[in-house]
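Table S7 (text form). Paired inputs.
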Amino acid sequence: MTKDTVEIPDIMESLEYGPAPESDAEVRQWLEQRDAFGHFIGGRFTDPGDAELFDVMNPADNTRIARVAQGSRHDVDAAVAAARSAFPDWSALDGHARARYLYAIARQVQKHSRFLAVLETLDNGKPIRETRDIDIPLVARHFYHHAGWAQLMGTDPELRDYRPLGVAGQIIPWNFPLLMLAWKIAPALAAGNTVVLKPAEYTPLTALRFAGI
């Protein structure tokens, strides 16, 4: 029998494939549940209502994946007022109490790590391998690290002189959206501050998902 006469069965027709571990179906379902995203202020999402909206695009194919409300002066004032209102109670907690919240955030980031990795890839354009294996695990590690930092603030010679100052205004760029959020938010909360965060307009979606967490 020659090579040309060998019959190879087409087994591909009989195989059924489940979704890949990094399927974007759950993420796209979450995005499609909202016509537009408002701001997260005072523990809840605002109604975008008649706010000016901007498109968030998938850089891989230049398709729109979400619309997000553009922050106005009123929105910024409301966010700062909410953060100032929360500051006295948050800063009054001892380090161990603040640490429990930071540990809880870290565990929730781990629990939703696959979702966050896929969302970051859709929003930012990074390979899933980078968001899954580097960025999101480091986000959780930063919150774990600063939870330990909060616990030591009352006793460690290098930390015990640190004091909460108030509301921290924070701006993050597009290239490491969720990781840079962790770099800024985790130490601020550990020290007893509250935060108003402005993500990059190119990549705001993991910040919004983090707020929900």
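Next pair, protein 2 of 2.
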Amino acid sequence: MLDIGIYPIYLSHLVLGQPERIQATARMSTTGVDSSCAMLFDYAQGAKATLESTFEANTPLEAYIYGSDGYIKLHPHFYHTKKITLCRYDGKNEVFDIGYRGNGYLYEIEEVEQCLSVKRQQSEKLSPDTSLQIIRTIDRVKEKIGLSYR
């Protein structure tokens, strides 16, 4: 959950916010850690998020965000994709090639450097409240799957 489960949870939070209801199931490894987890999040406005994280299979690492007029495909690795496809149900699709530098932590390092240079104690890009909301969601999933680190 804390290794790869955070990525789909963060994406759903970014798009839909805090889920109202969570369903989750997991398969636990012999060490007591979840090796595979499937989650269904329900939101007040009627939206749903179907999420999965697993070490048990070589999954495509793509993400899809569906809407009334089409969907957005975040190509592999969705959490630092270099390509996004906007697929409209009318057949008009657009592909966006986006630049991505480094292996993921470069942007975080640059933000920390920027905050330090202006003596800011927290980033404006991700508030402490948002971090707490995501941790609370993870805690709710952990409770549903019976995962404890104590």
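DSSP finds three helices and seven strands in the chain.
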